[in-house]
Amino acid sequence: MAEIKQIPVRIQITDGALIPDKGNKTVRTSWKISLFGALGLLVFLPLYNMAPVQQFVLQAWGLFFPSPELSARLSSIAAGTYKNIWVDILLYLPDGLSVTFAVTLSSIAMATIFGLAAGLGQISRVVLLNRIATVYVEVIRGIPLLVQIFYIYFALGSIFHLDGFLAAVISMSFCYGAYMGEIFRAGIQAIPRGQMEAALALGLSRSQAIWTIIIPQTVKIILPAIGNEFIALLKDSSMVSVMALVDLLRLAKNYGSNHGDYFPPLTVVALVYLVMTLILSWLVAVMEERLNQNAR
Amino acid sequence: MPDRIRIEGATKLFGELKALNNVSMVVHPGETVVVIGPSGSGKSTLLRSVNRLEVLSAGDVWIDEDHVTNHASDIRKIREEVGMVFQNFNLFPHLTVLQNITLSPINVKKLPKAKAEAKAMELLERVGLAEKRDAWPEQLSGGQKQRVAIARALAMEPKVMLFDEPTSALDPEMVKEVLDVMLALAKEGMTMMVVTHEMGFAKAAADRVIFMDQGEIIEEGTPKALFDSPKNERTAKFLAHIL
Known about the structure:
The complex is a heterodimer. Chain A is mainly α. Helices cover 78% and strands 0% of the residues of chain A. Among the domains of chain A are: 51-83, no CATH class; 93-244, MetI-like fold (Orthogonal Bundle), CATH 1.10.3720.10. Chain A contains eleven helices and no strands. The radius of gyration of chain B is 18 Å and the shape is globular. The two termini of chain B are 34 Å apart. In chain B, the strands form two sheets. Chain B has a six-stranded mixed sheet, sandwiched between helices. The longest helix of chain B is centred in the C-terminal third of the chain and has 16 residues, at 172-187. In chain B, strand 9 and strand 10 form a beta hairpin. Chain B is an alpha/beta fold. In chain B, helix 3 crosses helix 4 (113-126) and helix 5 (142-154) packs parallel to helix 6 (172-187). Classes of the chains: A mainly alpha, B alpha/beta. Chains A and B meet through helix 8 and helix 9 of A and helix 2, strand 6, helix 3 and helix 5 of B.
């Protein structure tokens, strides 16, 4: 009889940017193209719109296609009233960026706690806990995030006087906790039953076994999936812009309506989101690799 | 002589299926009892009911004075004294060999780390794997894994050892190294209940052999009596098949 090999399980869902692990060259290449493309554009666009560069470009155009609009823009540059919108936006960005970061990081921390609780609840033998966790996951996953945000901010917020930031973190983490709960549950159940039996046979309590034997192994196999959730959460944090909370997207929208031109701010914000998610997906890949090296 | 393990009327139902049907047996202190039988005969279920990994539908199990099947008894305390070795080793893959062995002494018996490690090294020495102390389970062969699993069970200084087909998942060339460790353990006077297909081991180490079929004990006796002159037809048929 051949020895039974335990096949390492890896649960991976890919609804975000792909995780560029070393083995997958195609993903790695497209990751590089996307990242350097986005960074390149973020550098190129502000430089290209600097006054001297614009002056030179417009003059060159004017040689072949003269138009009154062109000369008006040239004279505004000469008069010193020309404004490089692209640089202007980049200077504005840090405010929105810090809000987006604050919402995302707080929500990630809270959602992980909710998720672990929901996952443990779903495998719990205590009927009440089990019910609560299962119903929580069902209900939350059945309602669109945007509706939940509206609900918590406008409906509940008017009763409990929640400020924008708190409402944002509560709705994001409550929603994502349910999705992570499913991942934790699947991860815990993917650990062979023999692991729990061996721990119990050694005299460990069920909760000791879960925390010292099951969860450490679970974390390793669900890391790609959890990483993807983090990335998705970062992206979905843009939805909180519907509240009175000036995150990256809301900032771009405000800027666009103030200046009557949505193209530059939204382009910059899209690129910034792309850079962030790509870097985050790379971090997840590095973390995963570390874990794989350690406890083999 | 008082009984170390006493099973009375053990019955286990899996839905319609009667995995165990009113099984009674004892294991005396220092005795090695080998349970044999075709697959599906209930022998593993019986073994697993001894430390309540399997909850019986009816019947009682005692280990010395401890009533295993009584839900009021502290099953963790009982399990501390019952070592178990599994078919698939069930080593903890995220812990090193040494950590696998010291986990329970440190977390359950609250032994100081240094003391637990000294004891673990002693046991690793005994199963011939001292140099593997810092290896990960994945880096070991099947036979080595099972020897570590035995050391892990012994680290709790149990008064009973349960073996659930300990060599069934091993490549043939690794069976002997595991059986040798078990044989030495039996010779030292450990109380052992072993479910196995290794008739050689039964002959060499068992004080008694129990033959089970369809959830019932069909026949039991010394290895010599059971193997050389089985009284029951089913026993004879099974032995003819396997030997």
